[in-house]
Write a structure and sequence with these properties.
about 55% helix, 4-stranded antiparallel β-sheet, alpha+beta
Amino acid sequence: MAWEWGDGAGLIGGVAGVAGVLVAWASLSKAKEANKTAKQGLELSRKANEIADAAKDLSDQANALSREANQESVTSNELAHEANRIALGANRLAQEANDLFHQQERRGVEIHDVHWDGDWVRAGVYRLRNDGTHTAYDVSATVTVDDEQKRVTSPQLGGGEHLTFEFPIARRQYAIEQRERQEREERLRSSRFPPSVVPVNFHSIEKRVYWKTELGNPKEHIDSHNMSGLGDFD
């Protein structure tokens, strides 16, 4: 039986068809595997995204906690500085109280020799003298002669030093009294019957002195005389 070209073509066509089926089946299998792999990739990508989101949340929480911790640290430092400031203030007050206590203790046993004496040195000029041996500090002295008042201050006045007060009214009054005395004496010399009592002019003199000792103890001296003269300088 002779081989015919048509039979060969049919055989080749059959073989090609089988091969096509095999290729198609293999391609389908690969496609399934590719789809499966793609699905797995999508799942992994989803899980990766979830993990990334979770990591972001944790990072945000960590950042928030870090900021809170920093704020707490700043607050703690501020409180520490405030506590140190209060402690320094308390120590300073304690030292001042201790110094004040010792100062008061020294003041209680301080020896202070200051005495005040005053007199007229010339008409209308009154001198107030520290007759003691110690220095008077922050001196404020007021002398009043009748209704005329004068005040003198000095940062310090040592023993033997003095303050000077000018009294213009007292100076004029002294001149009047001197003329009256001279006239009275002349009348007495010319009179055959001199009076048994000679009138005398009296004036009030008040001294008020305020000062401090070397350690700061406040002192005062007040005296007054209602039967004082305005001096005698003849």
